[in-house]
Specification:
Blueprint (H helix, E strand, L loop, with lengths): L21 E8 L7 H15 L9 E7 L3 E8 L3 H9 L9 H9 L16 E8 L5 E8 L2 E10 L2 E2 L35 E3 L2 E3 L3 E3 L27 H25 L3 E7 L4 H7 L6 E4 L5 H16 L2
Parallel strand pairs: 1-2, 1-4, 4-11, 11-12
Antiparallel strand pairs: 2-3, 5-6, 5-10, 6-7, 8-9
Helix pairs in contact: 1-2, 1-6, 3-4
């Protein structure tokens, strides 16, 4: 997709040009499908990207967000980013699902500079560079299990909802809630109105209430195949529930990206392999901001191309 050297290029400005500041967030997919060459190539590409901005560490700010089932922020939006971000990227590994929606939600609430009233030619360049190799398979929400409330992540495991409720701030680690797919009122076995069910070898009354079922935007009625189910219905069948989760994870990601762009922050997307390029195109700030490759060896060149574009923009 790109030609020439992948070497970094420093930013500089002579006396006739003013160098704009930048705030850049790297949002990287570390799901299990990234294992092997893809994660190695992603690490090289993202480190090379950061090193392009070495000489502007006192003026620019960077952030690193990683996502799989949960979302982590190895480096917050700050100056002096090259060494700590390089160290963090070197330590990345691949495992878990694809929780793009929460990654974008957390990118939205980074401490971006308020640019209200700042003339357009003086504004800090604010950019999210979002990478993924797969379509969304997880979302973050509120759940009640055995009478206890959880802030957790529901994810797909193959074609069905994964049994375990994942921790939202860890790459791939679960709560002791292994019946996310058995929906209901969330009460204890002694007080629930749900009957005993036998699902995937679990013969139990314990069940999970999904608070999102009643959400005015993402509730059951927002997804046609779920319109006939109740918000506390016991043991909703697996296929409709999995379809609903896929819908939620995708639509929430699109909506969170739209909220980022509404703040004047540009989104570049980089897609690899099985991800839907049309989905990434929707997340991006336009066709010129969306990149895709089936070959992870091309990632470093794509990151470098985006860095080159940004460096040209910063010299105004």
């Amino acid at each position: 997709m790109v030609g020439g050297s992948h070497g970094t290029t420093a930013i500089g400005a002579d006396g006739s040009a003013k160098l704009r500041n930048a705030e850049i967030a790297l949002v990287l997919d570390l799901s299990g499908s990234m294992g092997g060459s893809p994660i190695a190539d992603l690490k090289e590409g993202s480190k090379n990207f950061v090193e392009n901005f070495t000489d502007q560490q006192a003026e620019n700010r960077f952030a690193l967000i990683t996502f799989a089932s949960g979302v982590q922020k190895p480096f917050p939006m700050d100056h002096g980013y090259v060494s700590p971000m390089t160290t963090a990227i070197n330590g990345l590994g691949a495992t878990g699902g694809t929780n793009a929606e929460d990654a974008l939600a957390q990118a939205l609430v980074l401490p971006w500079s308020d640019q209200s009233g700042v003339p357009a030619n003086e504004r800090t360049k604010q950019v999210v560079v979002f990478f993924s190799d797969g379509n969304p398979t997880a979302f973050r929400g509120q759940f009640k299990y055995n009478g206890t409330d959880y802030d957790g992540v529901a994810a797909l495991g193959g074609a069905l909802v994964w049994d375990n409720l994942q921790r939202p701030d860890q790459q791939f680690n679960s709560f002791s809630v292994n019946r996310v797919h058995i929906t209901g009122d969330g009460k204890t076995s002694g007080s629930t109105s749900c009957p005993y069910v036998n699902s995937r070898g679990l013969n139990t009354k314990l069940n999970v209430r999904w608070d999102v079922f009643t959400d005015p935007t993402y509730g059951l009625n927002s997804y046609g195949p779920m319109s006939g189910y109740g918000s506390q219905q016991c043991n909703i069948p697996g296929a409709p529930l999995a379809g609903y989760l896929t819908y939620l994870a995708t639509q929430m990601a699109i909506d969170n990206a739209a909220a980022i762009k509404a703040k004047g922050i540009e989104i570049y997307t980089i897609g690899l392999g099985n991800v839907d390029p049309a989905f990434l195109g929707t997340l991006s700030s336009g066709a010129a901001f969306a990149y895709y490759t089936p070959d992870s060896s091309e990632l470093e060149g794509i990151f470098q191309q985006i860095a080159n574009i940004l460096k040209l923009v910063l010299i105004s």
